[in-house]
Amino acid sequence: MSVRSRSVAVAALALFATLVARPVAAHVDYVTEDTGDPLDAVAFTVEVLSDPVNAAVFTGGGLATVAGLAVYLWVRPTITDVVVLREKLVGYGDLVPWMLRLAIGLPLVGAGFQGYLFAPTLAFDPGASPFLRVLFIGLGFFVLFGLATRIASAIGLLTYAWVLLAVDATAVIAMEYVPVLIALLILGGGRPSADDMLLAVASTPGSYYGRIDPVHHLKSFLDATTAPLRRYVPTVLRVGMGVTFVYLGLIEKLADPGRALLVVEKYDLTSVVPVDPGLWVVGAGVTEIAVGLALIAGFFTRGAAALSFVLFTTTLFGLPDDPVLAHVALFGMASAVFTLGSGPLSFDRLVGRPALDDDESVIAAD
């Protein structure tokens, strides 16, 4: 098989997965109000796959994907386009903190103004809770500006833990904030950021600002302390993103088929790909879990991240009332994972060509 033929085959498999799983990236809770008919998840899945047509489509798609990946791993071709892309992405490593700040800074500001606790389903009255309003808006702006980034990230993590444990456990639906905040806690603001600019001014001998700002000493200390952890940032992000996908596929779709069927009916998804509604639900759930497990294992990491980005984008067009702001964090995380690659503790690093050389820092010093 020629390199061009293999590229076409891989692209076709990615397109098939995108079409089958078009609603896969949607948070079902964000686009449905009713809980749907109570259905036994296991019985529903068995019934769907008992249909010969459904079984053939499901099995055929799965076998084609597995066969394509197996052939690729066996041949392991060197595609010039991919090599050049990987080398180019290495130069974007120092911009990842900026990506992540934008990814959660904007949603946090939006959460404060619109009145919800990380997830749009956890609403509060901004007028009756001015502290929460100021907290979320303040966190968002501090993160966006890159001002006291690590402190803001720590407060953000504590706030999320409080909401999850003390307010409403359904905040788990917005778990994508956690790996991003952890990454920013390790990386700091990066560049461009207020932290970076103020550090440059404050650390310059003879500067007036340096005489009155003792905080830059803390930032320098934290930069040195977290330096050994920087290489694990890609791992934190891809595992966090993978866990999010597995949760959405398993809990929101396969474990709650009644509600997932409402999404298929509401947006007439069977007119997009004319298959049984049950196959839409099962296919979307399984695909989402598969993408999540691939990310957790670091298996074809950049390919999984790119597919995730395509799924998020098609979701925005396919589900017009899905809240865009609530998915910005996932967009940013997918972009960061695509940029950084698998990182340590991954299948790609074990058997493939690593995204970055072992002697090169995964993230440039900020």
From TrEMBL:
Keyword Transmembrane appears in the UniProt entry: yes
Record field: transmembrane: 55-75, 95-119, 131-148, 160-187, 289-312, 324-347
Record membrane topology: Multi-pass membrane protein
Keywords for the protein's UniProt record, in alphabetical order: Cell membrane, Membrane, Transmembrane, Transmembrane helix
The keyword Membrane belongs to this UniProt entry's keyword annotation: yes
Compartmental location: Cell membrane
GO cellular component: plasma membrane
Pfam families: DoxX (PF07681)
Name used for this protein in its record: DoxX family protein
